[in-house]
Design a protein that fits this description.
6-stranded mixed beta sheet; alpha+beta; 6 helices
Length: 185
């Protein structure tokens, strides 16, 4: 079982890259007034058939050949439902997939969000050819990151996104921006 929600985001986003996505958007929303924690991962990968989408939260449904079970989405669905939320999966063959999980923010059973800056750093460094869009909304305040803007600052060298220097800068920048959001800035 995955320990925190950032591990689920990592798992789902890595599935997006394996599905051939060239663009992946990750949105996190925390809203105390609505008692809501939501995350979504949206990609432009190969998508899934309606039949497979209907079965994807069954632990014995997986596309992996290295094992016969896929536990990530079933555990995420169970966790979300136990916390007053749910899981939706919208997919269309050839167009991509969106996975959205919602939780009651105040639920004592809700897993912690986890380390999103390190998660985003890992995804960007591991798949620098993908355009990553990260959006974090905290009580109406918002921070966004688009790797195409970083690549532009790197004179178009997308491979630099995989470098340790850029990865550490990215993680530190995300940490600082999320701390500023939490302070209301």
């Amino acid at each position: 079982m995955l320990e925190d929600l950032s591990a689920h985001v990592l798992d789902i986003a890595e599935n997006s890259t394996r599905a051939g996505a060239t663009e992946v958007g990750i949105t996190i929303e925390e809203d105390e007034a609505k008692d809501l924690l939501m995350f979504s991962v949206k990609d432009d990968g190969k998508g899934m058939s309606p039949e497979f989408t209907a079965r994807v939260t069954d632990p014995f449904t997986t596309t992996r050949t290295t094992r016969r079970v896929g536990m990530g989405l079933p555990f995420l669905k169970q966790s979300a439902e136990l916390c007053g939320g749910g899981l939706t999966i919208d997919s269309e063959l050839g167009r991509g997939t969106t996975v959205t999980a919602t939780f009651s923010l105040s639920s004592v059973d809700r897993p912690p969000l986890g380390d999103m800056p390190s998660t985003v750093m890992t995804l960007v460094m591991g798949s620098p050819r993908v355009r990553w869009k990260y959006r974090h909304i905290l009580n109406g305040r918002e921070f966004t990151l688009d790797t195409d803007e970083i690549v532009e600052a790197l004179d178009g060298d997308r491979d630099m996104l995989a470098s340790p220097e850029v990865g550490l800068w990215l993680r530190d920048t995300l940490n600082a921006e999320l701390e500023a959001l939490a302070r209301g800035e």
